[in-house]
Amino acid sequence: MGATTVPRVGSRRLDAEVAEVRGGTVADTTRRRRVLVAPDKFKGSLTALEVARHMGAGLRRAAPGTAVTALPVADGGDGTVAAALAAGFDRRAARVTGPLGEPVDAAYALRGADGTAVVEMAEASGLRLLPDGAFAPLTATTRGTGELLLAALDAGARTIVLGVGGSATTDGGAGMLTALGARLTDARGRTLAPGGAALAALHHADLSALEARLARTSLVLAGDVDNPLTGPRGAAAVYGPQKGASPEDVAVLDAALAHYARVLDGGELAGAPGAGAAGGLGYGALAGLGAAFRPGIEVMLEVLGFREALAEADLVVTGEGSLDEQTLHGKAPVGVARASSGTPVVAVCGRLALGPAALAGAGIERAYALTDLEPDARRCMADAGPLLELTAEAIARDYLG
């Protein structure tokens, strides 16, 4: 694989939910207003599809006659497969190895027309698969992600978008590589145990038996972080603590990942953008599988057919649970705004922590926060649907009246 050009992902006119309400009985001789609703999920509250549906309901109620196109989006993390399914991909299921080594049921999305698959590593190796409090920072494995990639290949995928985020692992993608045929051994020729800590004993990495179909497959690593594999901004230091790693564990993992990189490719790609994504799985995909890294939202907008949906839109509505500093670094709302080609963009969110200047710099004209309607955070999350509909009515009054 190892191509030097970054692959583009084919797209077609999507089968996204399109709802149109015609108002009045007199024929309208002017073109009706068209709104494209393209939000990410509100984490812990609503999926991206649910957000889009509530927004559409409020817009149609306040501005009858407006054509509303719903296009849920994702940036490569949790919800990426759901966004692809909402856009007409087929759901496929596979039984794979979970992060603790137990079997789990995982899903991926496949578009048979062009052989494009969307694989979300969190489906197989995500934090959400861990029992409450059962972190395993030193031993959690990405083997299931490799098995999910194999399932996509078995289904005929020729292009695979690998969304990375929400991982329970810090094994540099070693588990993924072994599931795909790599052999990682210690100085005595023994196969390494699962997890990132075991990488400290890596002596030899044999990639000669990697799944042959990978060489004929375009693999796109889609993520929203550009961290390197190691160091103060690396996978262990930045993301290890949220996976249960103590300061001592972080030091062990960082050293083990550095050693792993020296053995695998001489450390050549350890500093590449995206290498530190998903506990270093990004590095494993780049160095071991020849994947090409692209910002997750950019890839997903292409896959979902955002450009086609945007063609006649007068207004774009995007959003996510919290609009904050992280939003400005590769998250979905900014990606949507940048792809909107001059069409006005407004955003909805649960919580707003960005000022007007930051929003404007990101291409967002205005943001509407649900906490302005319900300051209590718990109530706001519980009632997010109705609050979104009220917010959509306000947007309709401000922009469609």
TrEMBL record:
Species source reads Streptomyces triculaminicus
What is the protein named? Glycerate kinase
**Similarity field:** Belongs to the glycerate kinase type-1 family.
Biological process according to GO: organic acid phosphorylation
- Keyword field contains Secreted: no
Q: Which UniProt keywords apply?
A: Kinase, Transferase
Keyword Kinase found: yes
InterPro entries registered for this protein in UniProt: Glyc_kinase_flavodox-like_fold, Glycerate_kinase, Glycerate_kinase_RE-like, Glycerate_kinase_sf
